[in-house]
């Protein structure tokens, strides 16, 4: 692995008896889009603030390109920042807001003017230079805040829920713009959100936090496909949990059984798993009326339609209730309560969980 641009070792933050951060280690690669994801109170903002230098930690070491910045003041760290509240300076024009980090650094006027215009154009706000913040929409204000954060070419950009105050459509548009700006600039992004879809769609890697502890960190696809424990599985989607007997193992495949169903599960550490295991079976990997891979027949208990998708609860004699999430067009049948259906799944639909 190449040398990380930023490393945090043993980050601890206590408020009284509460562990806001509990011995967190984190490495961030150069140019990476890294997201800190977790429920409210899991420690995301505390970790980002500790990186920024707003919050001091009890025991820790933070290095930036191998230089120890643990005790370095905020301004020395030179990180760009974008927060949820637009945080523009209200009495200043758009261009003065963007120029501000340059003015503080006492750069020549021509350089300030050129870079300000360049950054505003990058965020598609080139025509708004003389506007005042209060004349801008929330999305426009957030674009200007982003232009200001990148204006002095920071080594790392810290973003704390920058889109959460925006409506759904704007949120989706800006997600895309932030992501493409990240690719264009090649700057390292550390992004905080509690929104799973946002994290999955934008990030190279996601770090999942709970109660100040890292639960798992992997690329978006890997995390979704291989949640480590039931907290991660639940947080990233809807899963069915099944307690199974382990009946065999071969290289990286675990053979399991529960009642009249059998499961083949790919796992990295098959030798460390005992004779009992808990599996997560993703609701969107279950299929209704799946000829050829039919494994169970079950009775529909309830159905709810959510636009293109529908959620079906079926009852199986052996496994109990199972939730299936499928597209409404996927099956030739319309699931209705009381209907007997066959359900199936691919071998990669199951994940073996470790106890939390
Ligand atoms: N200044 C403070 N004094 C006391 N407790 C604090 C303080 N700041 C944060 N906490 C607590 O530390 C824990 C972590 O807070 P933090 O803001 O990092 O969580 P978060 O994951 O960012 O949550 P959210 O998504 O709600 O912003 C929470 O339980 C919070 O109440």
TrEMBL record:
One of its GO terms (cellular component) is ATP-binding cassette (ABC) transporter complex. The keyword Glycoprotein does not apply. One of its GO terms (molecular function) is ATP hydrolysis activity. One of its GO terms (biological process) is quaternary ammonium group transport. Keywords: ATP-binding, Nucleotide-binding, Transport. Residues 6-236 form the ABC transporter domain. The keyword Glycosyltransferase does not apply. SUPFAM superfamilies: MOP-like (SSF50331), P-loop containing nucleoside triphosphate hydrolases (SSF52540). It holds the Pfam family TOBE_2. This is ABC transporter ATP-binding protein. It comes from Aliishimia ponticola.
